[in-house]
Design brief:
Layout: H1 2-19, H2 29-35, E1 40-51, E2 68-79, E3 82-86, E4 101-102, E5 108-111, H3 116-121, E6 132-134, E7 153-157, H4 158-165, H5 167-172, H6 174-180, E8 185-189, E9 193-194, E10 201-205, E11 214-220, E12 224-228, H7 236-241, H8 251-268, E13 271-273, H9 278-283
Parallel strand pairs: 3-6, 6-7, 7-8, 12-13
Antiparallel strand pairs: 1-2, 1-5, 2-3, 4-5, 9-10, 10-11, 11-12
């Protein structure tokens, strides 16, 4: 009897060894990169903003009496599953004016040289090729040609939609409402949103500048991880010293978003591009060239 039990035990052990699942080797960094879908990032010129009163961009008097020129970029991200336009520059009504336009309060002087239609043509695209449009936020310098994309799906944070469609904005800043009121295909989102479900194009919710402000994370095959800052930071000094414009919607929220942004950038080892910083704009290849 003992001999039978011993034999059965040996057979059971052998069976377990034969049936044990094989341990697959973890994929290498090269294999992960190879499997990542290729996306292309095109950078376009949405105009120039001359800030005549830079003091608006800090809670104290650090920049009092100073001025600074901002870039105003917009972007197209081409993914195998669809094409996204991120931000929309300044108003196309500025194109062809004999002189740059200065706001009645004198704080900003703005100009724009070329239309979105002409610029898209440089990469062989038309308005109809843009399936999705999203804005870091709905201030005038980020929604200038939004109305041209009435057939695209507008991806918008719920809080930002309520903000720009609210009665207060309609009365105090009607140009913000007018810029987006023609967008009818609306998909509201809440928080971080992975557009194509593969981690390559992700909206990161960073409120404070406006209620639904967001930044864009791209995980690119050759360039690597990249973050477009929206207006969380307008220029290098404000990122370094965490300075906040006096016109931000919520200062405390902005500070929390800055912490979240920096932690995420470090976690992903992402290169950060400040959308209004001229030097960062100049680093990017301009359409028809692209990053990938």
């Amino acid at each position: 009897m003992k001999k039978i039990i011993y034999v059965l035990a040996i057979l059971a052990i052998a069976s377990c060894k034969q049936g044990a699942p094989r341990q697959e080797a973890a994929p290498s960094a090269e294999e992960i990169t190879d499997s990542k879908p290729e996306i292309k990032l095109y950078t376009f010129d949405g105009g120039t903003v001359q800030v005549n009163a830079l003091g608006l961009f800090a809670q104290d008097e650090t920049y009092k009496g100073q001025s600074k020129e901002f870039a105003d970029a917009f972007y197209v991200i081409e993914h195998p599953k669809g094409t996204l336009m991120w931000d929309a520059g300044l108003s196309e009504g500025l194109i062809g004016l004999p002189e740059p336009y200065t706001s009645p309060d004198g704080n900003f002087t703005v100009s724009r040289r070329d239309s979105v239609v002409n610029q898209l043509a440089s990469i062989g695209m038309g308005v109809e090729d843009i399936e999705y449009i999203a804005f870091s936020h709905t201030h005038f310098d980020h929604t200038g040609h939004a109305s041209a994309f009435s057939e695209a799906t507008w991806l918008v944070q719920d809080a930002e939609y309520d903000f720009v469609m609210g009665e207060q904005v309609k009365e105090s800043n009607p140009e913000m409402y007018d810029a987006v009121k023609g967008l009818k295909n609306i998909q509201k989102i809440n928080g971080d949103y992975d557009l194509f479900g593969d981690g390559t194009v992700v909206f990161k919710y960073m409120p404070g500048h406006t209620p639904g402000h967001q930044v864009l994370f791209l995980d690119m095959k050759e360039h690597g991880p990249l973050l477009l800052s929206g207006d969380l930071y307008h220029f290098y000094e404000n990122r370094e010293y965490k300075r906040i414009p006096i016109f931000n919607y919520d200062v405390a929220q902005t500070r929390e978003s800055m912490k979240t942004f920096e932690a995420f950038a470090e976690e992903k080892n992402a290169k950060v591009y400040l959308q209004h910083q001229k030097e960062d704009f100049n680093k990017m290849p301009k359409a028809p060239n692209y990053l990938k």
